[in-house]
Amino acid sequence: MSKLQKKKPQSEKRKRVIETADDKSGVAVKSTVEKKPVRSLSDAGTEKSGQPMAGNFFARTAEFFREVKVELKKVVWPTRKQTTGTTVVVVVFVFIVAVFLGIFDYSLSKIVQVVLT
């Protein structure tokens, strides 16, 4: 068996080396990250043990909402002033586009009216 055909142990298969540049020194830093095993689409409705997940619905739903709560705590929400400012910009932009489209529609309808009569 050649070197290419040798099978790696399971622990080595899941590891991946990532090379990144250190911000301060610019030196490349290698770090090892363990990859999670990829589940196929045929496994979508089953747990790792092969059992259907239907009986675990409420536990999974509760876990989902716990994770949502944790992620929402990480969100940096805009201030009232930022929200008001961006809302005003959107309303003004919509008004300008509406006026432009109105003028364009009116002029095209007049052109069609002149051509047809």
From TrEMBL:
Cross-referenced Pfam families: SecE
GO-annotated molecular function: protein transmembrane transporter activity
Gene3D superfamilies: Preprotein translocase secy subunit
Superkingdom of the source species: Bacteria
Membrane topology type: Single-pass membrane protein
Assigned GO CC terms: plasma membrane
Keyword Transmembrane helix on entry: yes
Predominant place of localization: membrane
Name of the featured protein: Protein translocase subunit SecE
Species per Swiss-Prot/TrEMBL record: Desulfobacter latus
